[in-house]
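Show me any protein, fold above all:
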Amino acid sequence: MNEEENKARRANETPEQGMGNFEKHMIDIATSDKSKKMREKVKEELKHIPDRPGHQNELRMIYQTRRMHSLGKRAESKQTAKEVLEECISGLKDDYPNSQFDYDEDFFNKCG
């Protein structure tokens, strides 16, 4: 392959394709470390949403999923914990209009 063909091939590669095993391993470590920090953050926030049977537990499950997405690198926009919680409750209220959902208002107000 001549130099121009090599340049054209490299231009079409994703960054990972041009990396060696060590570089790929370092990205995996950084990604898993970030994921671990995100999970720990969400786990801490879930302590402020009581765990009870029924719709309250559904709130916790939906919150956990949506909050992880809001913290991820592919998030369309960054949302606060309170914004995510309010969206979750709003969606659940559509399905269960007479349900009450409990959470630590002071904590989520401080989160923004």
